[in-house]
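## retry 2 of 3
previous attempt timed out at serialization; input unchanged, resubmitting
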Amino acid sequence: MNVMVNLATAGSASDYRRWDSPVPTAGFVAVGLAMALQQAVGVNYQRGVTPTVARFRQLADQWIAETINISSVSDMLLHPAYQAIIGMGPAIIPLLLDELKREPNHWFAALKAVTGENPVSPAYAGDVDMMVDAWLAWAEQRGYR
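## retry succeeded, writing output
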């Protein structure tokens, strides 16, 4: 028997899957629930996206959006979303490094706070490209890359 199962309510033809089973399995239901949740709250819970990654991404996006017009680095670093990122602890080191590599920004203080280290030479303070290079070299030496 062929059954059409609506996994989400977005309304496109791709939302319907054809299964050669009379009843969808729990796995299909879980996919549908994840898709519905994604639509409802705007968070992507695809395979491989952990709650830590989702939370980091939400906070990072918020921080970037809300500090884009702030010229004071101190004010940027004191933003609640940035402080919440630091509060996530060492689990976010790889995420910070990926973000730093993808789109350099002022992630240096967060990295210093969660690692307890600062590989940036005082001579390179303020040179974002050199600071990024120093942190990425640090990451490689510690097996993050």
